[in-house]
Amino acid sequence: MLSKRPGLLASILLLLLLTGCWDRRELNDSLFELGSGVDLLEDGTILVIGQFMVPTKSGEAGGGLKKPFLIETGVGKTAPDCFWDMQLKLSRRITRGHRNNIFYGEAMVKAGLSNFMDTVTRDPDSRLKSDIWVVKGGTALEFMQMSYPLENMPSIALSKIRHVIGKTTGNSLLELLVEQNVEGSGPTLPAVEIRYDPKLRKKSLQVYGRAILNRNQQLAGYLNRIESAYRLWITGETVRIPITVDLPNGRGRFNTEVNQLHASIRSAVKADRVEIDVDLKGSGVVLESQPAVDLRNPDDLRAFEDEMNRHIEKKQLGIIQKAQKQFKVDVFHFGQAVSRQNPKAWAQLNDHWEQVFSDAKVTVHSRVRIKRIGLQGPPLNKP
Q1: Helix, strand or coil for residue 325?
Q2: How far apart, in Å, do the first and last CA atoms of the chain sit?
């Protein structure tokens, strides 16, 4: 009996060290922010918007509110000023640990995101898996006031859309932090826009593509949806891409979906000029063929493939040259390839890589093969 007393005494002492909810942050005292927005006002101040879940409404058919979410704003010269101004209007403490999306108005991105991103990364409640969006041609406030019929919380709709269209990472905050440490690389963010449908007579949200940022995190321009998909092929961040090829001389067009995507980059430095060779591979599935061609014929299938690969090479090269001449921002990780393959030369190129990238000679080779034609018997549109 005496031998058990030391263990009993130790157990009692350990229980004294256990604590409960020491800060009394109960769920009933918390307000969960699922989406944030940031706009730059004309007087130079910052407007921060928060979209919050209303607990008594979410998942219920009744209730006195028309929407299951609440929108509130805060204004200030710095982000902490805005957060405090917003908190003073709310009876519950704001919790950002469940935030899915952060939206930036175009004016804010043109001015630069570095200061505001400093605040976001210092906040222990910020999620690395939050998506960051640029509202092309609009404001975050206008965008966040829109409703979305398929989701109770509009803030989570765009994250789901990104996964549906084949984006594998889907966490822009983490992407942005990683890109800052990729040698020679310029960061990009997904862009969304508000579109008015004259047939349905309503506004709707739509993913536009990617917003290109320079090293100062200022907006340099945009890539549309298809251009963004081609870029992601090179960087290895997408699993599939739709391709529509118009045949020469008005002979029709065909649609394919290319998956099993792979890209390799080879670089060489010759007399202070960089040469970059991009090799693309993939497997294609024919979705539609408007010209009456029987793809069961090997010769027709090879001609079909050749036309598609020429289209891919021309399209991809045009996007790369757009980044070189218009944006002067390397969004393809070419600098990383040069650094890895030519480390001695990179030490001389790193400080002025933007100019070197703009003058680089780039070639693209596409080797996509059609694996499935999706057809039984002769084509139905063949006379």
Answers
A1: helix
A2: 99
**Same domain? 296 vs 320:** yes
Mean pLDDT over residues 309-315, rounded?
Answer: 96
Residue pair 356/183 in contact (Cβ under 8 Å)? The answer is: no
Single-letter amino acid code for the residue at 283: S
Q: In this structure, are 209 and 246 located in the same domain? A: no
Boundaries of domain holding 368: 239-376
What is the residue whose two structure tokens read 């800052």?
180
Give pTM, 2 decimals.
0.82
Give the CA distances from residue 238 to residues 91, 170, 262, 272, in Å, rounded to whole numbers and listed in that order: 43, 10, 10, 33
Q: In this structure, is residue 355 part of a structural domain?
A: yes
Is residue 7 in a domain? no
According to DSSP H, which parts of the chain are helical? 5-17, 79-87, 106-111, 114-122, 140-144, 157-164, 172-179, 225-235, 298-322, 334-341, 343-349, 353-359
pLDDT at 96: 85
Contact 94, 50 (CB under 8 A): yes
170's torsion region: left (phi>0), alpha (psi -120 to 50) or beta? left
pLDDT, tens digit, 9 for 90 and up, residues 332-383: 999 999 999 999 999 989 889 999 999 999 999 999 998 888 765 565 555 5
Taking alpha carbons only, the member of 138, 144, 147 closest to residue 106 is 138
pLDDT tens readout for residues 159-206: 777 666 655 444 577 778 777 777 778 888 889 999 888 888 888 888
DSSP conformation class of 250: G
Of 244 and 9, the structure prediction assigns the larger pLDDT to 244
Exposure string for 304-318, b = 16+ CB within 10 A, e = fewer: bbebbbebbbebbee
C-alpha span between 37 and 79 (Å, rounded)? 11
pLDDT of the residue at 114: 82
Q: Residue 180 phi/psi, 5° resolution?
A: -65, -20
